[in-house]
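step: validate -> pass
step: tokenize input -> pass
step: predict -> running
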Amino acid sequence: MENKFKKGLILGGLLAAGAAIGIALGKGGQELTKELQKELNVLSKHLKISLHQLQDVHQEGFNDLVKSVVEEYAKKKELASDAKTALILALQSKWQEMEEEYLNEEAKAR
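step: predict -> pass
step: emit ->
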């Protein structure tokens, strides 16, 4: 009986520790997502400005611009490679939205 009690106590402690670690990692993951979202907003604004500097605006040029902007930003902010990759993919997925905004601004400028 005493042996079962000790095993139960140890198992309960391990489960509690595992739950605490899971909660801590979950909060950290949410903070990382919030932090990346902030970075994404900053870079998105920078890309909109840089898009007007391109001679010929097309998706391939936009993707190259995204990579170079994120690389430069990642060096300044010392971002991890997985964060950098996530930002590149998220920004590249905004191509259609950015293209529409660019074309609307160009039409207004004429």
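step: describe -> Residues 2-51 form the longest helix (50 residues).
step: cleanup -> pass
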